[in-house]
Amino acid sequence: MSESNSYTYKQGHHRTVTRNHARRTAEVEGAFILPHLKSNFTILDIGCGPGSITTGFAKYVSEGTVTGVDITDEVLEQAREYVSSQDPKPQNVTFELGNVLEGLKYGDASFDVVFCNQVLLHIPEPVKALKEMRRVLKPGGFFACRESDMPFRWYPYPPGIQLSDKGGSMMHVFAREAGFEPKKMAKGAGAEVHAGEEEARFFGLHMLGRVEGSTEQYKALGATDQEIDLMKRDLKAWAEDVDAWFAILQAELICWK
Fold first, then answer.
1. Rounded to the nearest 5 degrees, what angle is found at the Cα of 174, between the Cα atoms of 171 and 178?
2. What are 106-131's pLDDT values in tens digits?
3. How far is CA 1 from CA 12, 97, 105, 109, 151, in A?
4. Quick one: pLDDT at residue 213?
5. What are phi and psi of 65, to 5 degrees?
6. What is the spatial distance between Cα 230 and Cα 87, in angstroms, rounded to a whole number?
7. Residues 225, 218: Cα–Cα separation, whole Å
8. Which of 165-174, 188-197, 239-248 has the lowest mean pLDDT?
């Protein structure tokens, strides 16, 4: 499948954007599904990004496989670099180009688990994506996602940071509309916090780098030069504030087929 520009992640896949994504782990982002995994399961990770979560799942399905899918070769190259850097390198992890909105190449009922993290939030047609994920899921298998609920919580919360908030999350509603039964869902939530001088500075400067590396994407979404400059100024100031504190409520959902 060729790369598609129709549904590209709006902030792009430059390493200034994916650097923080690569810090994500199966033990944190996927903690809520680990008790449900069996060693022979096949897992499909949609929107795998730089591959750290995908790779992390490998040891939990040592007799199975983990397949990471994303929409650009740029980020898949990062994922392959990541898995190759592991010692020992997992042998049951692969990464492939694919777009869930254009249809996945896999047959019906191909995977025991379909997982995504911070993906549906960025997809313009989440119900359509969920229908395709459900199609490739085996009967008795489950779909799971972890998605941020908006707005993010910041302190301090100056205007430039407010401009960076976006979107919302109703994943269990979208899943029901895609055909999953409410009685076969498990709904939960977790929290992600960045506080303390070193951690807040890393996160704030990372967010600043994402804005600097995605200026054209922000403009395409309607941001003005003045708004982008304000975002940069206030993110830098937040990163240097001794009282800086940031939290996200993470909605977690499991749907059995």
1. 135
2. 999 999 999 999 999 888 899 999 99
3. 19, 7, 8, 20, 35
4. 81
5. -140, 155
6. 43
7. 9
8. 165-174
Name the pTM for this structure: 0.82
Peptide bond into 124 cis (omega under 30): no
Indicate the residue type of 7: Y
pLDDT band for position 1 (cuts 50, 70, 90): very low
Rounded-to-integer distance, Cα 61 and Cα 83, Å: 16
What DSSP letter does each residue of 165-205 carry, written as one string? ------HHHHHHHTT--GGGEEEEEEEEEEESHHHHHHHHH
Superfamily of the domain at 15-191+250-256 = Vaccinia Virus protein VP39 (3.40.50.150)
**Dist. CA 171–CA 182, nearest whole Å:** 12
Rounded Cα–Cα distance for residues 185 and 93 (Å): 27
Tokens representing 255 are 């749907």
In sequence order, which ranges of the chain are alpha helices (DSSP H)? 15-21, 26-29, 52-57, 73-84, 126-135, 159-162, 171-177, 197-213, 215-220, 225-239
